[in-house]
Amino acid sequence: MTETLPIEPWPELPYAAWRDTCETLQLWTQIVGKVRLARTPWLNHSWHVTLYVTARGLTTSPIPDGDRTFQIDFDFIGHVLIITTSDGARRQLPLKPQTVADFYAAVMAALADLGIEVAIDVMPNEIVDAIRFTDDRQHASYDADAAHRFWSVLANADRVFREFRTAFLGKASPVHFFWGSFDLAVTRFSGRRAPLHPGGVPNLPDDVVREAYSHEVSSAGFWPGGGAIDYPAFYSYAYPAPDGFASARVRPDAAFFSTDLGEFILPYDAVRTAPSPDEALMEFLQSTYDAAADGAKWDRSALECALGRPRHPRPVS
């Protein structure tokens, strides 16, 4: 029988209703992401550690293991964690209410059973008052419906972010999911070096932060809430922020600059309830990028092009 579920492209995702699951899931993704980190050669701006949105959840993509590769996938339709190897082996773990410590033990045991020897740093990153994975019996929630709705938001944000990315010729990141900060992001670069970042991110080495922000960026993304913004939102920031960035006019009307976060915020509900959610999100992405690029005097004529279209090569004269 074919497994199908009703599709709601931009579902409700009130943070308070699934906060416990969100916090637990962030820690689970950190465990899986750290496996990729331990085995993958360093790539600029920590792009080697990220996860990617799939048609069913999130994936590490292939990870080196000697002459073979392996991959770890979160499936938020079947609610399982799947580990597969290039020699055909497979292990599957249920995504269900369980402590972080138990999830960590199950993942490590499954990897060992596949002959994959890997050790990870068991201290979570970018979380205040973090508890080691091996000791964390506090976070143990998993609301399958909320996890599925979260993935649905990621899948649609990923689609719009990917379209936005096509209009840039300069260096740009993939659309990828950072498990440390638990957000989906896409970043554009001017090509110029940036001032040394001061660091200071909780439980993240300063040298990692400084390498990530070694060059000027305009970055946008989505995260489900927490901290200063206790609701799901899209964000956009520039590093370094040019003069006048905070006062720039951006769209749509629901967008605003958060002085606490130092970035533009567009509440997710403003996108979800818009007549055209895709257009509202694209307006936010483009107008905040305009503010960053114009304020910092990027060479926009050399860095930009028209949005890509299926089966139409970019014209070059």
Architecture overview:
This protein is an alpha+beta fold and 317 residues long. It contains seven helices and twelve strands. It folds into two domains: 15-135; 144-303, no CATH class. It has helices at residues 15-39, 100-113, 144-165, 206-212, 268-272, 277-295, 300-303; strands spanning 52-53, 57-59, 63-65, 68-75, 80-85, 90-94, 176-178, 183-193, 215-223, 233-239, 256-258, 263-267. The strands form two sheets. Strands 1, 2, 3, 4, 5 and 6 form a six-stranded antiparallel beta sheet that branches. A six-stranded antiparallel beta sheet has the order 7-8-9-10-12-11. It is globular, with a radius of gyration of 20 Å.
- The radius of gyration over CA amounts to 20 Å
Total beta strand runs: 12
Structural class: alpha+beta
Largest sheet: 6 strands, antiparallel
Mean pLDDT figure: 96
Q: Regions with pLDDT < 50 over 5+ consecutive residues?
A: none
The sequence of SSEs as H and E is HEEEEEEHHEEHEEEEHHH
Distance between the termini: 52 Å
Question: How large a portion of the residues is in β-strands, by DSSP E?
Answer: 15-25%
Instruction: Tell me the helix content.
Output: 25-40%
Question: What would the principal axes of the Cα set say about the shape?
Answer: globular
Number of helices: 7
Number of domains: 2
